[in-house]
Design goal:
Number of domains: 2
Structural class: alpha+beta
Radius of gyration: 20 Å
Largest sheet: 5 strands, antiparallel
CATH architecture of the largest domain: 2-Layer Sandwich
Number of strands: 8
CATH topology of the largest domain: GMP Synthetase, Chain A, domain 3
Helix content: 10-25%
Order of helices and strands: HEEHEHEEEEE
Low-confidence stretches: none
CATH class of the largest domain: Alpha Beta
Length: 159
């Protein structure tokens, strides 16, 4: 059986000198290995193929290498964020947020703290200002702890 920690080490070694980062590594009991990557500049098919070839070389060179399948790809744009790098990549973009208490809203991602435990978002809301006839759209800043959120994902706007 392939050890997940050894795959993490091999991937980190292969990614040295690039701006890419690991989003997720999954190793099944039947040695199916899936590596998800992302990068501030994007991950293209050529980069995934290059990394796949490099990992195959390293895995096949290991003594007693078991049969395995390997899949290297970019993280899905529609999937919820998993690591701090994804939040940093989408600073200034609109994101869909689902909280653990069931609230769902779209906001602009403004910041993530250094520890990766809180995000700051700008939420547009209709607020009736005193003396105004109609509610006005007002942008309000909120700081949300990540452990209070069920998911945060990139917001697609098809306008």
């Amino acid at each position: 059986m392939i050890d997940k920690h050894s795959i993490e080490t091999l991937v980190a070694e292969a990614l040295e000198g690039t701006d890419a980062f690991v989003v997720d590594i999954a190793v099944s009991p039947s040695d199916d290995v899936v590596v998800e990557l992302d990068s501030p500049t994007g991950v293209d098919l050529d980069f995934c193929a290059l990394l796949n070839r490099r990992l195959v070389e390293l895995l096949d060179a290991a003594p007693g290498s078991p049969d395995y399948s390997l899949e290297v790809g970019s993280a899905s744009l529609s999937a919820p964020f998993k690591v701090k790098g994804q939040y940093e990549k989408h600073l200034g973009d609109n994101v869909d947020i689902l909280t653990r208490d069931g609230r769902k809203f779209t906001a602009r991602l403004d910041a993530i703290n250094d520890e990766g435990t809180e995000i700051t978002v700008a939420v547009s809301r209709k607020v009736k200002e005193p003396g105004m006839k109609r509610p006005q759209m007002v942008e309000q800043t909120e700081t949300l702890p990540l452990d209070s959120l069920k998911s945060v994902a990139y917001h697609f706007d098809f306008k």
